Structures are given as structure tokens and as C-alpha cells.
Amino acid sequence: MKAIAEAPSKVIITGEHFVVHGAWALAAAIPRKSRVEVSKSDRLRVSSDRFRGANHPALRAIARVVVAMSKEFSFSPSLTVAVSSQVPEGSGLGSSASTMVALSSSLSRLHSLRLSLDEVIRFSMIGEGQIHGRPSGIDSTVCARGGVILFTPGTSPKQVRLSRPRSLVVCHSGITRSTRRQINRVSGVKEMFPSLFAGLTESASEVSLMAADLLKKDDMKGLGRLLNFNHAVLSTLGVSNRALDRLVDLLLSLGCYGAKLTGAGGGGSVLAVAPEGKEKSIISGLKARGFDAFIAGIPVKGVESWLER
Ligand code: MEV
């Protein structure tokens, strides 16, 4: 008998980094998934098509989540854990959060624990904390809950209901980077300019609340302008770079309403909002220039799990 769980990945629409320091951020689950299969075994074996090498931090983090859950719920940690993912590591699309959420959900299913989504998120955060240092929890929350959420640490996330499905354009810069290093870089800016940073954090909250409102009203042009604004502010923190700025410019020149880095920055992916019906030609334009780009339809469901013989 094995338990399988699949969790979506995510994009941060607005408010990344500032959310670590208490701002509201807006995030959406996207259809690229991570899948975890768990079954009982004679010892703990973890394998992955993405995280390679026995000492890979993500594999160690997976083992840590297994051990933590086995202690709390008194089951044997001797398990085979197989991870596969449609999300490249370090792409800013939540590969680790999506994996950790699918992992805790599959363990809950295998041992009939019936964990709530909050508990699935709590256990996934043990792995996320080991990998990223001090994450806000937004990645795990949106990968577990699905949909589009407004999130700030320490309060219940708010689901943002869309009046109809929408499409976002996602383009990978081809550069991978460490989220932990990016978070530390921003903390350095906060230490250097505390009052300036407090003002930026407040304004990031305002941007996210407005972005949620515009998305609800289906005002994609307005949302695009906020993405541009948010990218400019993130650049001042030093989390963008020339490659990302050029990619943002390219997306705008292809006709997008707005574009910005998404996630930790420094590489990873860029998110854009395009006029309806133009998404496919924009993706073709990006692919013609060698980028890995795709249309992410939202909203999508959160984590799902089941048993198989
Ligand atoms: C990463 O997807 C988003 C960051 O804000 C980190 C976090 O919130 O944990 C950069």
C-alpha cells in the first residue's frame, strides 16, 4: 500500500520579502505540481528526480519532516519516499514548499492521521525552515490551500475569489538561486535603513491589498501597473538583477500590462499579466528567445492525497 499526494506550486503576485517582515502578500497556486509517494519499508529511503545527491539539503529536510511526524504520531520512520516535481528547484515557484506540503499530506494519508490543512502546513514548515532559514509560510500556505490567497504571518489567510478563471504568464530566467541568501540580503537592508524599510513594508501591504481587489474586479490592466510598481521597489532592495530587469522589459515589449520578479528574486522566475487572448503569442515570443515560459491558469486546487495498492 502506498500513499500519494500532489500539491500545486505557486507564484507570489505581490509582496514577497516584505511578507517575511509582516506585510500582506498576494499569492496564487499554479498548476505545475510536486508529487510524493510514501510506503512502509525497512529503513528511511528518500529519492527525487529534482533534488539529487545524498546530501542535498532538500532531501535532508524531507527526512527531518518524516522523523518529526513519526515522533509526534508514533509511527516508524522506516519509509520509502519518492519525490517527483514539475517545478525546477530555485525557480521561485515554490518547489520545496510544494514538495514539503505533498510530503506531510502523504504521510497523513498513509497513517490515517486526518491532519487539517493547518497541520499539514505546520509540518511542511519544518522542512521549509531547514532549507530557507526564516520563511514567512506563504509558500506552504498557498501550495496547501490552493486558489489565490492574501497572507500575512500570524493571521488566517484570506481566499481571494475570482469572478472567472484567469491566465498568468510565467517565465523562468534560467538562473537558479538560494532563497535563504535573498532573504538575508533583504534583512541587511532592513538593518541598515529601519525606518525606510518600515515605510516600504507598509506600502507593500497596501499594494497587495489593492492587487487582490483589482484581481477580484478583473482589472488586469490595473493589476499589471501594480506589478511594475512592485518590481521597481523590489529592485531597490537589491533582489532583482540585470537578467530579471531585461526579462521584465521583454515581457512589457511583447505587450504585457505588467511584469515583475516573483519569489525570492536574484534569478528564478518573472510573472506577467497579459491582455486576454495574447498570452499564447507572448509565450511563443519568449520561447523563440530560448526561455522556458508557460501560461498558468488560476485558480487551482490545493494539495490532494489518496491511497493506492
Ligand atoms: C518566496 O517565495 C517568498 C519570500 O517572501 C520568502 C518567504 O516569504 O518565505 C521571498
Secondary-structure content class:
alpha+beta
What is the count of helical runs? Answer: 9
Helical content band:
40-55%
Fraction of residues in β-strands: 15-25%
Total domains, how many? 2
The radius of gyration computed from the alpha-carbon positions, rounded to a whole number of angstroms, is: 19 Å
Q: Tell me what the CATH architecture of the largest domain is.
A: 2-Layer Sandwich
**Low-confidence spans: pLDDT under 50, at least 5 residues?**
none
N-end to C-end Cα span: 4 Å
Overall shape: globular
Q: Name the average pLDDT.
A: 96
CATH topology description of the largest domain: Ribosomal Protein S5, domain 2
Number of DSSP-assigned strands = 11
CATH class of the largest domain: Alpha Beta
Offer a concise description of the structure.
With 309 residues, this protein is an alpha+beta fold. It has helices at residues 57-73, 95-110, 117-132, 138-145, 179-192, 194-216, 220-236, 242-253, 279-288; strands at 2-14, 25-40, 45-48, 79-85, 148-151, 158-159, 166-172, 258-262, 269-273, 292-298, 304-308.
How would you describe what is shown here?
- By secondary structure, this protein is α+β, with helices and mostly antiparallel strands.
- It folds into 2 domains: 167 residues, Ribosomal Protein S5, domain 2 (2-Layer Sandwich); 133 residues, Alpha-Beta Plaits (2-Layer Sandwich), CATH 3.30.70.890.
- Helix content is 43%, strand content 24%.
- The chain is built from 9 helices and 11 strands.
- Strands 1, 2, 3, 4, 5, 6 and 11 form a 7-stranded mixed β-sheet that branches.
- Helix 1 runs parallel beside helix 2 and helix 2 packs across helix 3.
- It is globular and about 55 Å long.
- The termini are close together.
- The relative contact order is 0.20.
- The structure holds (R)-mevalonate (MEV).
- (R)-mevalonate (MEV) binds next to helix 4 and helix 5.
